[in-house]
């Protein structure tokens, strides 16, 4: 927390110094902007101020009315399939009676909307009075580094688990912030039944609907979807490579393996030892295959074998103690074997 | 077979100190690596797992590690062999490329512990000392006296 106070202090000093500088495009953006997302313009700087190898959660201010009146809450994700960049989970919520605001914003299937249209709606959600007074939202940016390391753990954690944890985490954040949730709508790619069951177990008091394409059916889900999608697009736009790569306009394509621009990015930026910059999800087969072809082979400790072997000592072992000439084979001492030690020289 | 270590104490003192990582992976390649930008950049402390525990990842594989010192009384040396020995019995020559006092030890998705082969291997230092330390006459006599007393106590 002390970190944050520090920043606030700096911010105040700064705003006094250059009070009439309105050069928003400059790199040393006012720090105030990087702490709060108050419009489309402040989204990029906020993301850029965070470490991109870790997850970032942003929760908007909760409109007072949402603490009072029963609310509906939508959940959706963006960037599940691409081999590049973060996956973003988003939620949005508003009172059941405020459906009109969502319609006025033009929330509809986010995939049907153009990028410009999504940007405009996102901006409206954060700036227009009729929206800020009743709609709140939150996103979690799940970094590609986190995705890779989760999927490559000794006990693998699938993308579905990562997703569900993120969704439930965001709902919990909304609860903790005081949102009076009554209904939850979730868009899913996988089978809805299992997901619904898991959510109901964790949040038994809500009316929960999990559906495919909920994005186009429920405006509150499309609002969540727009927040997630716009955040993901901006995360890619402001991506700074800690590896020091500079790519003009961050043009690495859609991130989908079929996109030729993305494919070129993947083949042109292979590091022989480390593979890719951590914008890439190493656990995607596209990335794995590219590395198998072009980078040094790398072999890891085997993950702990899942099937323990219970078979005891084989009987035949006792007949194997000598070589053909009758010499006794001595097994290496356990002390050395367990420690991976061996003799370099025969004495 | 003989192994020639082609350096002396002076070389060691003059050698440059290296920054090393002990990785839980076999890398089938040899050459320079951009360690600062692709790896050191991402090392983070993870105090939730204990003091000094570090996290990072290598090609997406999660790593957990810690900074380790070379045991007291020992020096860390990096040796290089320019010509691979033709057979097990041929002579070998090793050259000194650098020295180190500490290094970063990494496990694949496991908090470093006494179960790690590296830490286990270091037990050898104690065992080797116990086995090869010269024993004086006085030590022997003291030990004999101690044994006798022990035998008296137990009926």
TrEMBL record, chain A:
Cofactor(s) in the UniProt record: Mg(2+); Mn(2+)
Residues that, per the record, bind a divalent metal cation: 76-77, 187
Record bears the keyword Calcium: no
Pfam families assigned: RNase_HII
Cellular compartments per GO CC: ribonuclease H2 complex
Family: Belongs to the RNase HII family. Eukaryotic subfamily.
Job description of the protein: Catalytic subunit of RNase HII, an endonuclease that specifically degrades the RNA of RNA:DNA hybrids. Participates in DNA replication, possibly by mediating the removal of lagging-strand Okazaki fragment RNA primers during DNA replication. Mediates the excision of single ribonucleotides from DNA:RNA duplexes.
Protein name: Ribonuclease
Gene: Dyak\GE16128
Automatic annotation (TrEMBL), chain B:
Gene3D superfamilies, sorted: 2.40.128.680
Family matches, as Pfam families: RNase_H2_suC (PF08615)
Stored InterPro entries: RNase_H2_suC
GO CC annotation terms, alphabetical: ribonuclease H2 complex
Gene Ontology terms: biological process: RNA catabolic process
PANTHER family cross-referenced by the UniProt entry: OS02G0168900 PROTEIN (PTHR47204), RIBONUCLEASE H2 SUBUNIT C (PTHR47204:SF1)
Name of the molecule in the record: Uncharacterized protein
Native source species: Drosophila yakuba (Fruit fly)
Upper taxonomic lineage: Eukaryota, Metazoa, Ecdysozoa, Arthropoda, Hexapoda
Annotated gene: Dyak\GE13980
């Amino acid at each position: 927390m002390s970190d944050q106070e520090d920043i606030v202090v700096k911010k105040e000093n700064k705003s006094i110094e250059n009070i009439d500088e309105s050069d928003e495009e400059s790199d040393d953006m006012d720090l105030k902007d990087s702490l709060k997302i108050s419009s489309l313009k402040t989204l990029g700087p906020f993301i850029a101020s965070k470490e991109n190898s870790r997850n970032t959660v942003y929760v908007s201010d909760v409109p007072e009315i949402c603490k009072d009146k029963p609310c509906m809450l939508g959940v959706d994700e963006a960037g599940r399939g691409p081999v590049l960049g973060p996956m973003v989970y988003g939620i949005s919520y508003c009172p059941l009676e405020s459906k009109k605001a969502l319609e006025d914003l033009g929330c509809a299937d986010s995939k049907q909307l153009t990028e410009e249209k999504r940007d405009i709606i996102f901006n409206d959600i954060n700036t227009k009075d009729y929206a800020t007074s009743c709609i709140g939202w939150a996103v979690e940016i799940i970094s590609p580094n986190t995705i890779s390391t989760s999927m490559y753990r000794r006990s693998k954690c699938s993308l579905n688990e990562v997703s569900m944890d993120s969704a439930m985490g965001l709902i919990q954040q909304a609860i903790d912030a005081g949102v009076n949730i009554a209904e939850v709508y979730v868009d899913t790619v996988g089978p809805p039944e299992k997901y619904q069951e898991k959510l109901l177990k964790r949040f038994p008091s809500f009316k929960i609907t999990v559906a495919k394409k909920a994005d186009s059916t429920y405006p509150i889900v499309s609002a969540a979807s727009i927040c997630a999608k716009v955040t993901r697009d901006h995360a890619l736009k402001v991506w700074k490579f800690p590896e020091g790569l500079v790519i003009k306009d961050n043009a690495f394509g859609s991130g989908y393996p079929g996109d030729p621009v993305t494919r070129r990015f993947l083949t042109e930026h292979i590091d022989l030892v480390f593979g890719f910059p951590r914008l890439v999800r190493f656990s995607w087969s596209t990335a794995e295959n590219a590395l198998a072809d072009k980078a040094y082979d790398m072999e890891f400790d085997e993950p702990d074998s899942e099937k323990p072997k219970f078979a005891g000592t084989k009987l035949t072992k006792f007949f194997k103690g000598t070589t053909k000439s009758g010499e006794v084979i001595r097994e290496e001492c356990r002390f050395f074997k367990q420690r991976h030690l061996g003799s370099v020289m025969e004495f | 077979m003989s192994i020639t270590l082609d350096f002396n104490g002076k070389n060691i003192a003059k050698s440059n100190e290296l920054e090393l990582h002990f990785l839980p992976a076999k890398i089938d390649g040899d050459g320079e690596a951009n360690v600062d930008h692709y790896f050191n950049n991402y090392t983070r402390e993870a105090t939730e797992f204990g003091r000094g525990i570090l996290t990072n990842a290598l090609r997406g594989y999660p790593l957990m590690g810690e900074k380790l010192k070379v045991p007291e009384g020992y020096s860390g040396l990096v040796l290089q062999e320019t010509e691979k020995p033709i057979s097990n019995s041929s002579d070998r020559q090793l050259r000194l490329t650098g020295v180190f006092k500490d290094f970063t030890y990494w496990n694949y998705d496991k908090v470093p512990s006494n179960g790690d082969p590296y830490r286990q291997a270091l037990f050898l230092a104690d065992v080797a000392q116990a086995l090869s330390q010269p024993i004086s006459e006085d030590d022997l006599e003291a030990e004999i006296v101690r044994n006798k007393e022990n035998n008296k106590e137990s009926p």
